[in-house]
Structure formats: structure tokens, C-alpha cells
Amino acid sequence: PTTIYLQDYKPFGWIIDDVHLTFRLHPTATRVISRIRFRPDYDVTDRPFFLHGEDLKHISAKVDGHDIELRHVDGGIEADVPHAPFNWEAEVEINPEANTALEGLYRSNSMYCTQCEAEGFRKITWYPDRPDVMAQFTVRIESTAEHTPVMLSNGNGLFYQQDQTQPGAPNVSIYQDPWPKPAYLFALVAGDLVAHEDRFATMSGKDVSLAIWVRPGDEHKCAFGMEALKKSMKWDEDVYGREYDLDEFNIVAVDDFNMGAMENKGLNIFNSSCVLASPETSTDGNFERIEAIIAHEYFHNWTGNRITCRDWFQLCLKEGLTVYRDQQFTADMRSAPVARISNVLALRARQFPEDQGPLSHPVRPESFQEINNFYTATVYEKGAEVIGMLKTLVGDANYSKALDLYFERHDGDAATIEDWLQVFEDATGRDLGQFKRWYSQSGTPKVTVSEAWSEDGTLTLTFRQETAPTPGQEQKEPQVIPVNVGLLNPNGDEVMETRTLELTEAEQSFSFSGHSARPVPSILRGFSAPVILEQNMDNARRAFLLAHDTDPFNRWEAGRMLSRDALMSAIIDGAAINSDYLDGLKAVLRDDTLDPAYRALMLGQPTQSELAGLLHQAGHTPDPSRIHTASEAMRDAKATALADLLPTLYHDNQVSGTFSPEAEPAGKRALANAALALISRGDGGTLAAEQYDQADNMTQQLAALSCLLDAGTGAQQLAAFENQWSQDRLVMDKWFSLQIIHANPEDVVETTRRLTHHMDFDWKNPNRFRAVMGALQMHHAGFHHEGGDAYELLADWLIRLDPVNPQTTARMCTAFQTWRRYDAPRQEMISAQLDRIAAQEGLSGDASEMISRIRG
Ligand code: DPP
Ligand code: ZN
To answer: Which of 781, 758, 782, 778 is nearest to 770 (CA)?
Structure first.
């Protein structure tokens, strides 16, 4: 495998004016004819003519109408071409049916579809498959009418012909995309699809036709996605001044898809799990996620498509910014504090372990073997945090000014992080030299704070920042860390509103004077930087902040720290769950002025894998079984301490009438169902069984079933659920996952194994594979159960999947990234499995890069 380095970037040397593609679709022998106008880029002196290509059956190639000899080299072809403008014409044959890797053009349930990001276009035809080559595409699709009545590509539909007079006569459709784009944004879809249609009038009065295309039978699952799309279009106009730029916007739902969704210009392709929604089949969590992903892909139209990336090292340029934008959107559509807490929970669950383990890499990596392996929580979620910090540092008005300049200056460009930061420097006059370290330095900074009070009324906060070494980076430099701080007086009133302290040095102090009594600081409000904050605070102080903090994030965080510390003591010393936490929690839950969704989050507790990470950081070897026991003890303690309150929370938050996925009723359901989970620990599942029987939506049904499985009394409902939903693939994914998630640790492997023998365990479908194997690795105590059977089972399946779908295999290898946290026997067992995977003949480049990085 070859390693590619950022510092080796070279421009292509040729400019493409336009690309004409003709597809003659056939399940096993699709012909692709490309006609491309190339001209030399005279700014570049060294212009070897190299085109990417993989798994292509070459038919012919011509330059200016004459056959040309191609030299087949690693990953593509070279040819001797004139150093002057010329017309290229080539024909290749590809096999969509055999394409189980789901990159390039493939068939899924007799539907043709494409996935070209990052490097899939090279599996379609010879082409400079790199994001800095942007061109206008015209696409002609031909196929027989009975199989593919609908044929779509990027841009605007120009022509469509369906010949029904002669059996077997071809359909033709032609699309033209007026906006130059890199090949990774190319898309084609053809199949028997039906549309849920609507229209949108843009801010300048242009009429856009919108469609969500699905397989017949899924029409009733499109309405919510369509509303989300229209809200996204409006929001991007209102908040960023960005208008849509084509006559049509199409979304297609596909069952077999490696990612969540893909922002192809004018033709977004979605994993059906990320767009199809109905009250009967989708939970509130599904609705919220779908809304965010539709927004995310739509927002890419400007941040990603109109302004794209120069090379794949710049991936965070589009992903970090677009995640940041979709997070802002969710905060505006729903509750901002709840959205912020949810984002931080996700960051801590996915990005922190990555950044603190062998896969740690900078937000902008400097080398890779397989770019697919860098679609990570670091690039996406930490990338978004970096933008949030930038906004905090420059302020809202300057952020808007910088973004306007970014769109104005770089529209049509393939840009870099340097371009992005330059725009901020030019718009604000601020030097971002040190801030740039957020893009190049990996690892999670640890910020330690200490307090000093002097009787003249001054509180001094001293901060120290430190980042542990990460693979390839021994030395770390201080970063610019915006720390939002507020002060409360001993009565709980805010005496200093939130202000931003800028940490730039390894150690730094800030003083706040003029206080008559010692104030209580609330530090890192809103989680203003993606760091680990170490603050020596006793339970009384945490309980005070839980009761009084005016910053909703830090108020929640105070409760979180109390429950975390209680869990840690239970794990380390076998201590009982302390009452400070339970009393504080009770007070918050009783407070009806607080949003139910927020109170539902308050009832949560750190996950077992988060606890394992914290123990490891604190110098302990995590014992998965002890962690599990303590977590269950915490739930029991809450169930007991809140026994009087839980029925009220449950009954007061029932929602009646027609189901609505809006934030308010969803929040009530979240709180009622969190209460139900605790009630079920005491009543053997009676109330949950009642709810299950009465449920008329998936949120209520699934929550009840989860409680029943936890109580060990859900066998009958589980069977009924399967019976009811056996025809719905997305619901059946839940059915598969649920049984593993709620199994006892000692039963997890057996349950998983049994499910892999189920006739609906279609392991080549990424959603189904993840539903089962993802659940296995997420069950902390089950996955790490003594004996290591789960490690072996997962490795067996990774070995089996790799030749079929390397990308999904490589992604799932991350289950092993935390292996060095555990005791010697577990490390040995995992290491043996890593060796076994690595030793597979023909192991994909994707998986082999991941395994070797994880091994370290
Ligand atoms: N489809 C992926 C995303 O939107 C990759 N661009 O993040
Ligand atoms: Zn994205």
C-alpha cells in the first residue's frame, strides 16, 4: 500500500472544459463512453497525462478521432497526448451487478446507483479522479424501459424519452449540470422509482422542483424528509444568504449504501435509513437524525460543491463546516441546549476515544493510505468544534463577514484550510497562526484549572493546558483555547455574564475583582472548546451548579460529573451511589419549568465505554464486568431514590393525539420513556407491557420493548414485533440490534451468533451488518466479556465481509481501537484477532491500513 502525503500535492496540469458521458446500462455489462475536452494548464510545467481507472474493461480510446495506445500503470493509464487542446474519447465496460463494494456504479435491488466520494469515479471511466479538477458534465443514460423507467443524473433534466411502442426499445434521458464539479460529486440513478414531489420558491423568486425518489411501497415515508428539505433551503437563505442554484433538486433512497448520505450536485443519494420516515416505523431519534442529515447534504451545495476541496487532506474544509452548519440548523429548529448537549455526548463517545487512541490524527491529516478511512469523527465532529471555536473567538458579526467573503472569494474553487483561515484573517484582521494548530495537532488537550481567592475581592483562575503525545506527534504546542466563563454568587445569582477567556499559553491566569463574597465560577460554558477540563471540585460545589448554573450546558455537566464520580467510586471502591447526586437530580426533575427533553438528558448517565476510557485515563485498568455492575447499581439507585417522582413524570408527559415528531412532543416522550425505563426495574415490566400494547408509533413501541427486554420479560412482544415488521427492512434492523443491546453480558455472543443464522441476516447489506455487528461492539460488557468470544466472532465476520465490502469492514475495525485500555489477557486475545485479520490473503488496503494503525 502506498502512503500519500499532503506535502506532495501537485496540480493536475490539464484543464477540462466539459465532459460528455453516455451510459448504456446493463446489469453485468454497462458501457460508458466518455468524451472530454482537455487543454494544457500552462501554469504547470510538468504535465504527465495520467488518468485514474480501476476495474475497467477497456474497449477503446481515441485522441482527436485517432486510436491511441494506453500504458496501463498502477491505478490508471498514461498516454502520449499532444501538448495542446484535444478531444478525448474512450469506451469502457463495467459490471454493476458484481460491485458489492458499493463504490462507483452498482446495482442494489435491481436499481442502479453510484457512490463516487471519495475515489469511486475511477471505477466508472478513465478520468482525473481528484477534487481539484472541476468540469461541466452532460450525461446521457440509455436503458431498456421496463427495468429503469426513471433515470437521473446531476443538474437539470434536458430530455427524456420513453419508447413504449417497441418492446426492448431504449429509454433515453439527458442531464446537464451547468456548475463545474469534481468527479466525486457525479451521480447516476436508474430504476423503478416513484417520486414524492414538491416545489420551493427561492429568495430571488426562482421555482425549484423537488423530489424524493423511492421504491414503490415507500411513498408514505417521504413527507417528513421533504419538509426537512424545504426548511433547510429556507434556513440557508436566511442565515447564510445561500440560494439554491438549479431548476431541480432530487433525493434518492437506496437500501445498500456505505455512508449515511451523499451530497452529489442536485442529486443527493441517501441510505434509506437516513431519509425514509413515518411515525409507525421511525423513532423520535430517527426523525431528528433524518432532519439533520437532509440539512447536512443540502448545505453541502455551497460548502462542498460550489466551494470544494483542493485535495482529500482538506476534507474537513467541507465536512467540519457543513457539520457545524447542520448543528446550527438543529439548534434553531429544536432546543439549542439539548442540541449542544447531544453534540457533546456524541463527541465524547466517538471522537475522544479516537483522539486518545492509536487512530488519533489531526483534523487535517498529513498522510493516508486509503482516504475512506479518514471520514472520521475527528474530521467531522472535531472539525465542526474548531469552527465553533473560531466563531466564539471572532464573534458572530465577524463570523458572518468572514463567511460572506469566503463565498465571494472562493465560489467555484477547490480550496484549502489556508484559504479558509486567510478569509478570517482578512475579514477580521486577526492573526490565526496559532489557531491553525487545531488543524495540524492531534490529541485532546487537557485543561487543568485552579482557583485562588483573595480577601480584596479578587478571584483568580489559573489554567494549564497539556496534550499527551499521539502517534507521530511527540511534542505538542499550546493551542488557542476559548474558555467561556461566568460567575455566580453564593446565593446562586449570576454576578458575571459569560465571557470568553483566550488561553494561548501553557499556563495562564485571569483575575476577576470587585466581588464582596467569593463567587463560584462556571467554566467552559457551552463546552466552548473540545478539551478535557480537570477541575478540582467537591460534590457540594457540583450540586450547587446543578441547582443554579444559568448556563444550561454547564448545569447539565454538573449533574453529569456527579454521576460520573459516583460511578467511578462505585467501580473503584465499591462505594454506594452518593446522595448529593440523587438529591440534586430529584430537584431538577421536579422543576416543571425545565424542558422535558433537557430533563430526560439529566436522567442519563455516562456509557460503560466512556467509563472505561475515564478509568484508563486515571491510571486504572477498566474491568468491564465491574463497570457493568456499577452502571446497573446506578440505575437501581435512581429508580429507588426517584420512586415517588417517576410515575408523575411518566403520566404528566404522555402525549395524545396525532403523532408529531416536533421537538416538544418528542421531548415529552423522551422524559416519559426515561422514567419508564426506571419504573420497569421495579414493576417487572407491567407498565411497559401496557405501553407496548397501546403504542401507535415506533417511539413508544420500541421504548416499551427495550424496557421489557431489560426486565427479561419481552419474549412474546419480541416475537410479535418480528411478525408485525418482517417486511420492513429498516424496522427489522432495529429488531436485530435491540436483542443484542439488551442482552445480559454473558448472553451477548450467543444472541449475536443466533441472529447471524436468522434468514433475514443479509450481511452484505451494510445496514443489516451494522445492526448486528455494531450492536455487538457497542455492548461494552458483552463485547469484552471474559474468554474473548466476542472478539473472535467479530473478527470472523470482518474477515468474511472484507472481500465483499472493504469500506464497511475497515470502519468496523474501530471496535478494537481501545484495546490497549484493557488487562493483559484481553489485550492478548484482541491482538491475536488483529493478527488473524492482518494475515488474511488479499486483505483490502482499507482494512490493512486500519489494522496496522490500531496495532500501532
Ligand atoms: N456523504 C458524506 C457526507 O455528507 C460524505 N461527503 O458527509
Ligand atoms: Zn458531509
So the answer is: 778
Q: Structural domains in the chain? A: 4-275 (2.60.40.1730), 308-440 (1.10.390.10), 446-529 (2.60.40.1840), 726-856 (1.25.50.10)
Mean pLDDT of the chain: 97
Q: Please identify which residue in the block is written with the cell numbers 460488557.
A: 781
Measured from the Cα of 304, ligand 1's closest atom is 6
Q: How far is the CA of 292 from the centre of ligand 1 (A)?
A: 12
Which of 270, 299, 375, 811 best tests ligand 1's pocket when mutated (most atoms within 8 Å of CB)?
375
Exposure on the CB side of residue 288, measured as CA atoms within 13 A? 23
The pLDDT of residue 1 is 80
How far is the C-alpha of 172 from the C-alpha of 159, rounded, in Å?
Answer: 8
d(CA 810, CA 827): 20
Burial of 540 (0-12, 13-18, 19+ CB in 10 A): exposed
| C-alpha of residue 438 to centroid of ligand 2, in Å | 20
Separation CA 382–CA 441 (nearest Å): 12
CB of residue 297 inside a 6 A radius of ligand 1: yes
Q: How far is Cα 798 from Cα 776, in angstroms, rounded to an integer?
A: 13
Residues with Cβ within 8 Å of residue 77, at least 6 apart in sequence: 50, 51, 53, 61, 70, 71, 126
Average pLDDT over residues 259-288: 98
Distance between Cα 490 and ligand 2 center (Å): 45
CA 835 to chain centre: 29
| Three cell numbers, residue 800 | 468474511
Cα–Cα distance for residue pair 553/696, rounded to 1 Å? 33
Residue 164 pLDDT exceeds 70 = no
Closest to 318 (Cα-Cα) out of 398, 448, 410, 217 = 410
Mutate to test the pocket of ligand 1, among 103, 115, 312, 319 (most ligand atoms within 8 A of CB): 319
Does the annotation count 248 as an active-site position?
A: no
Which residue, judged by its Cα, is nearest atom 3 of ligand 1?
A: 262
Distance 804 CA to ligand 1 centre (A): 22
- Distances 600 to 210, 587, 595, 697, 710 between C-alpha atoms, Å: 36, 13, 9, 19, 19
Helix axes 729-741, 715-725, angle to 10 degrees: 160
Does residue 698 surpass a pLDDT of 80?
yes
Q: Is 354 in the pocket of ligand 1 (CB under 6 A)?
A: no
Number of the ligand closest to the Cα of 321 = 2
In 3-state terms the chain splits into helix, strand, coil percentages (rounded to 5) of 45, 20, 35
> Which residue pairs from 572-580 have beta carbons closer than 8 angstroms and sit at least 24 positions apart in sequence?
572/615, 572/620, 576/637, 577/633, 577/634, 577/637, 578/539, 579/641, 580/539, 580/540, 580/542, 580/543
- DSSP-derived letter for residue 532 is E
**With 80 as the cut, is the pLDDT of residue 145 above it?**
no
Q: Report CA(325)–ligand 2 centroid distance (Å).
A: 10
| Residue bearing the CA closest to ligand 1, atom 5 | 262
User: 279-288 pLDDT, tens per residue?
Assistant: 999 999 999 9
pLDDT tens figures, 467-521: 999 999 999 999 999 999 999 999 999 999 999 999 999 999 999 999 999 999 9
pLDDT at 590: 98
Q: Out of 103, 297, 381, 385, pick the active-site residue.
A: 297
**CB-CB contact of 189 with 199 (8 Å):** no
Inter-axis angle of helices 608-617 and 624-641, to 10 degrees? 120
